[in-house]
Specification:
It contains 1 helix and 7 strands, in the order αβββββββ. With 149 residues, the chain is of the alpha+beta class. The chain has a domain of 81 residues: Immunoglobulin-like, CATH 2.60.40.790.
Length: 149
């Protein structure tokens, strides 16, 4: 029966379409935000995971030397700072295009629990910085069993 009835969009339908399109644009902006060069800054991607015994932070920082990376842990806040430096050495090379980023970055991350600052370890391999932060006894998760009456 609906095949015979002409369909018209109502104002509500048009508002729903507008809202969906606007939400998509807004969400895409924040997904692509870390890749943008705002104020000539570089923001590395960071993954934070947690096991029973430690918090693991992985940051993608390709093309850097360990001497140019600074890691600080203070009051539950992990700070990763670094600077990419450009060294120019030109020998009669004619470039068509060069796309590299050189500059400084800072990532400050609030940790999900208390960690042992003295036992923290960091490793840099293949452009990925991995920081392992052992949890303190206070912050470890404890499972509580529920008893039935």
């Amino acid at each position: 029966m609906f095949d015979l009835v002409p369909w018209r969009r109502t104002e509500r339908d048009l508002l729903d379409v507008f809202r969906t399109d606007f939400d998509e644009i807004f969400n895409r902006f924040f997904v692509d935000l870390p890749r943008l060069r705002l104020f000539d800054r570089f923001y590395p991607y960071v993954d934070i995971s947690e096991t029973d015994k430690e918090v693991i932070v992985k940051a993608e920082i390709p093309g850097m030397d360990t001497e140019d990376i600074d890691i600080t842990l203070r009051d539950g806040m992990l700070s990763i700072k670094g600077e990419k430096k450009q060294e120019k050495e030109e020998k009669d090379e004619h470039y068509q295009r060069i796309e590299r980023y050189y500059g400084s970055f800072t990532r400050n991350l609030r940790l999900p629990c208390e960690v042992s600052e003295n036992k923290a370890k960091a490793e840099y391999k293949d452009g990925v910085l991995t920081i392992k932060l052992p949890k303190t006894g206070k912050s470890r998760e404890k499972h509580i069993k529920i008893s039935a009456n």
